[in-house]
Specification:
Blueprint (H helix, E strand, L loop, with lengths): L2 H5 L7 E7 L6 E7 L3 E5 L2 E8 L3 H9 L1 E7 L5 H9 L13 E3 L5 E3 L3 E15 L2 E13 L8 H6 L47 E3 L5 E2 L35 E3 L2
Antiparallel strand pairs: 1-2, 1-5, 3-4, 4-9, 5-8, 6-7, 8-9, 10-11, 10-12
Bound molecules: flavin mononucleotide.
The site of flavin mononucleotide has 24 residues, from strand 2, strand 4, helix 2 and helix 3.
Length: 254
């Protein structure tokens, strides 16, 4: 069975699903990245989404039975999507610094990198092994800003994004791994830094959140870090190109 090859041919978009829990002043909100939103009927208009049972968003969807869905555009960065897709609302406030509007369902709608949004009321659930499929009737649908939708393919192929284990479409073989096999010792250190003799002496660092490995031999040229830059010399403003974690989330490889 060619499961991996064939599953990769299914197309998806990229979305942020939000929900809430509690009421009044005790209302808490959370959201997460999903690629599994699909329209399932036109009359009435409805959506389905598959959410991992361990996610905080799952708990909130079960409790409130309402959600918002933001359709992400092609400009959405890994740094923006990282917390929504790799961190849990149990550990971080994903809404900090993010533009939102309050929907009529009492659930925030993420506006950053959004081209449109839906609000929906959950009318049914179905057990799907590790996940629950939520069937929801659309009660609101509005544009946010012009743009092209971000596809799952673009997220992977162009942005080099990864998918964590809790995603419905996680494929074990694509577990985040080192970016490249060991290379011959490179050239120079970052601008302004002392030349480094051998990068083999420089340690690789692993992101504790998503498993991305910073390899000094490769640097991160897409984000301004030249090959041959020791992790210690990477600017403190640099973030993990996969999940947006800052440098403090990295640990040296033993
Ligand atoms: C590209 C991508 C696609 C994802 N798709 C889904 C999905 O369809 N369903 C799901 O439950 N989780 C999906 N996830 C994982 C969740 O976003 C992730 O587990 C999140 O940290 C859950 O947060 P929460 O605990 O705050 O709800 C996806 C993540 C990424 C990066």
């Amino acid at each position: 069975m060619k499961l991996r090859e064939t599953l990769c041919n299914i197309s998806y978009g990229m979305y942020i699903v939000c929900s809430r829990n509690g009421s009044g002043t005790d209302t808490r909100c959370n959201g997460q990245i999903v690629n599994t939103v699909v329209q399932v009927s036109a009359e009435p208009p409805s959506l389905a989404v598959s959410i991992h049972k361990r996610n905080l968003t799952h708990e909130y969807l079960m409790a409130s039975r309402v959600m918002t869905v933001t359709v992400l555009n092609k400009d959405a960065t890994l740094a923006f999507m990282g917390p929504w897709g790799f961190k849990s609302g149990r550990d971080v406030d994903k809404f900090r610094g993010v533009r939102t509007l309050m929907g009529r369902t009492g659930v925030p709608v993420v506006l950053d990198y959004g081209i449109s949004y839906f609000e929906a009321e959950i009318v049914g659930t179905m057990d799907a092994f590790t996940h629950t499929i939520f069937l929801a009737r659309i009660v609101e649908a509005e544009p946010i800003a012009p743009g092209e939708p971000l596809t799952y393919l673009c997220y992977h192929e162009l942005k080099k994004g990864k998918t964590p284990m809790n995603a419905a479409t996680f494929i074990r073989a694509e577990t985040p791994v080192a970016t490249a096999p060991p290379q011959p010792a490179p050239v120079h250190s970052a601008a302004g830094a002392a030349p480094l003799k051998e990068t083999t002496a420089m340690k690789k660092y692993t992101c504790k959140l998503c498993g991305y490995v910073y390899d000094p031999a490769q640097g991160d040229p897409d984000n301004g870090v030249k090959p041959g830059t020791a992790f210690e010399q990477v600017p403190d403003t640099w973030v993990c190109p996969i999940c947006g974690a800052d440098k403090t989330e990295f640990e040296p490889e033993s």
